[in-house]
Design brief:
The chain folds into three domains: 67 residues; 203 residues, Pectate Lyase C-like (3 Solenoid), CATH 2.160.20; 136 residues, no CATH class. It has six helices and 39 strands. A 14-stranded mixed beta sheet has the order 4-3-2-7-10-13-16-19-22-25-28-31-34-37. Strands 5-6-9-12-15-18-21-24-27-30-33-36-38 form a 13-stranded mixed beta sheet, with helices on one face. Helix 1 runs antiparallel to helix 6. The longest helix is centred in the N-terminal third of the chain and has 41 residues. It starts with 37 loop residues before the first helix and ends in a 10-residue tail after the last helix. The N terminus is likely disordered.
């Protein structure tokens, strides 16, 4: 049976039945972009500008920090380090060529000039000598005895010798403390002689062959002034004057000098330098003054010589010069100043010595020097100041101790050259020299205010000021920015730079 179709009904609002079940989407709301509204646009612009300002401030801060740091580094290098030009110590000084010679005392006893080097040299009657022995005094001329004075007992004083000689052309006494020698006076082996009060002055005539010596015997000077009969301020000329007298001990002799003044003695010749100990001799010099001599005091193959509490000054070459295989030399509590070269020098295998408590100042070269394999010595508690050369020098001289010295105002404080093995350097104070050290690096010593050395106090001042400089620069830059912003009518965003 056929069922009739239902009649077609129109849908609501004109929607047909065939579209009644279709979902209709709502109309989309347009998305609003930031800044599309005028007020929001201004806020976005301000935020972007603020970000740029912060970035610029960070850049300015970084630039200021870098510039300040670079300035501090520049100041540290230029002002915080003490640069001083080293003074040249090159200075010509003419020395007599070293020539091996005979013992000067043996020469004059033989009638030869003290500096004789040729065995074929003939004796000269102009070379005269008084040889003081234990049992006789012999007057020699040209190596020949002119007179022999037997002694019932040994003489002990210089006035005894003058009385026995009894000839002022050889030795004379003025009755007021002055003895004048016109010949060499030599104390021979086994004899002993003391020059002391009432003798207060011993004048050695300026002529060839005149000297005061001890050859294997004992000689003592106590409270006496020893000088030549004429003097001159031309020390260079005097250094080559063959007539210049000197004092020397040789052949295992003993020479002691105390409370005496020796001046204008010696010349540039072997063991004729001023006051010398040589050939295994020993003795001492204490509480005395030596000046305007070629070398203040000198040793050569000597042993156990004590040089203590003396004043050496204005000598042509050195103040104190232990030399050539001398051993056990004690140099203590002396002042050595204004000498033409070094204040104190040990040279040529001088071993087992002590240099302690001395003041070496204002010498034309070094204050204290160890030279030419001088080893096993102690340099302790000295003051080396104001020397034109270096304070303390160790040249080719290992195995020495340098401690508790004060070294100030010299060219180089401590200078080591030519081999410095096993040198012990400790507890020294090295201040205000053109250079603190050369040829050695130091620990355990005080180094301050020397050239080519950092100045800690200056560096602290430089770097301590860096934060303050940054704050000031930041403030000035921020102030300038605010003024610039006000000038263009733009609000200032944030503070600072």
């Amino acid at each position: 049976m056929h069922t009739p179709h239902a009649p077609h009904q129109p849908g609501p609002a004109g929607v047909t039945a065939s579209t009644a079940n279709t979902v209709t989407l709502p109309t989309a709301v347009p998305v609003r972009q930031p800044g599309s509204v005028p007020g929001e646009r201004a806020a976005v612009t301000a935020a972007a500008r603020a970000r740029r300002e912060r970035s610029r401030r960070r850049g300015v801060h970084l630039l200021l920090a870098v510039m300040t740091a670079l300035s501090a580094v520049t100041l540290s290098v230029t002002v915080g380090r003490d640069y001083r030009e080293l003074t040249s110590t090159t200075e010509f000084f003419h020395r007599h060529a070293y020539t091996p010679s005979y013992d000067p005392l043996s020469n004059v006893i033989l009638g030869l000039p003290p500096n004789t080097v040729d065995a074929r040299t003939s004796p000269s009657p102009e070379i005269r000598g008084i040889a003081v022995g234990p049992d006789a005094i012999t007057l020699l001329a040209g190596g020949r005895p002119e007179r022999v004075v037997p002694l019932q007992r040994p003489v002990t004083g210089l006035l005894d010798v003058v009385e026995k000689v009894d000839d002022p052309s050889w030795a004379g006494y003025d009755g007021r403390g002055r003895v004048t020698l016109s010949t060499a006076l030599v104390v021979s082996p086994g004899a002993s002689l003391t020059i002391t009060a009432p003798v207060s002055e011993l004048v050695l005539e300026v002529r060839r062959g005149v000297l005061l010596g001890v050859d294997g015997g004992r000689l003592a000077l106590d409270g006496v002034a020893v000088r030549p009969s004429t003097t001159s301020d031309d020390l260079q000329q005097l250094s080559v004057d063959e007539r210049r007298p000197f004092v020397v001990a040789t052949n295992a002799a003993t020479l002691t000098i105390t409370r005496s003044h020796l001046s204008y003695l010696g010349r540039d010749w072997n063991s004729s330098y001023g006051v010398s100990w040589s050939d295994r001799s020993t003795g001492s010099m204490t509480h005395s003054e030596v000046d305007h001599s070629f070398i203040g005091t000198y040793t050569d193959h000597a042993r156990d010589v004590a040089i203590e509490q003396n004043w050496f000054h204005d000598n042509t070459l050195y103040g104190v010069d232990p030399h050539s295989y001398s051993t056990g030399i004690s140099v203590r509590n002396n002042v050595s100043e204004r000498n033409g070269r070094h204040g104190i020098i040990f040279s040529d295998f001088v071993t087992g010595g002590v240099v302690a408590g001395n003041i070496t100042r204002d010498n034309r070269l070094n204050g204290i020097m160890m030279d030419a394999s001088s080893t096993g010595n102690r340099i302790v508690g000295n003051t080396a100041s104001g020397n034109r050369g270096d304070g303390i020098v160790l040249a080719s001289s290992p195995d020495n101790v340098v401690e508790q010295n004060t070294i100030t105002g010299n060219r180089v404080g401590l200078h080591v050259r030519g081999g410095g093995e096993n040198i012990r350097v400790r507890s020294n104070t090295i201040v205000d020299n053109q250079l603190a050290t050369q040829g050695i690096s130091l620990d355990g010593n005080t180094l301050r205010d020397n050239g080519d050395q950092w100045r800690p106090r200056v560096l602290v001042g430089i770097w301590a000021s860096v934060p303050l400089v940054l704050v000031l620069l930041s403030g000035f830059t921020g102030l300038a920015r605010r003024r610039r912003s006000r000038a263009v009518g733009r609000p200032v965003l944030g503070g600072g730079v």
